[in-house]
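<given_protein>
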Amino acid sequence: MLTKARTISFSQTALWQGVKAELPITLGVIPFGMIYGVLGLSAGLTPLQAQAMSSIVFAGSAQFLGAQLISVGTPLPVLWLTTFIVNLRHVLYSTALGPDVQHLSRRWRWLLAYLLTDEAYAATAVHYGNRQIPLAHKHYFWLGAGFTLWGVWQVSTAVGILLGTQVPPEWGLDFTLALTFIGIVVPTLKDRPNTMAALTAGLVAVLAFNLPYKLGLMLATLTGIGVGVWLENRKKSGH
């Protein structure tokens, strides 16, 4: 009984640590979710469809981009491919965290994969990087961080849908997307592969800004990933 009680205690502690670590990040997510709610309606989605996208897709940048592409009548294959490419960075996240969750059941891994976002990864990667904390309970931190963000995202989307077009465009709330990603990316630029991947993706995004259907973002994402993987492989091989 003592062992079971201690296990529950450790799990609850890790869960609340994840919640507390994620709460400051959600301050930048709230206006972004509201903007998505407004944008979803203006793109022609019904309130139910806009909210369902937040619940099922649960990927802010893909939802934001998807709504913009829907509003300009983008063909479905291009829409699917573009949002898929934009979310390819999650493969890198799962590669980084995957080895630490191999001991979990398939259901746990599926749940954590669903909750894996940029913001959740930013907090969870730091937590998993602390090797002094027992691995057996670390996934509860991920669960707490992920569900905190999920809940805030659903509520902020609903608020945006309710507000509809009442949010003045001059507020410029969409810029919070850039600020949120800057806050997430900059602390991770600790080595050459990550730094060069970010710089390359940014440069390509600027140069390819005028491509139709936001294809510049797709090109920037693929180029950044390619540069990062190439430099990482060179680093591992000793070059």
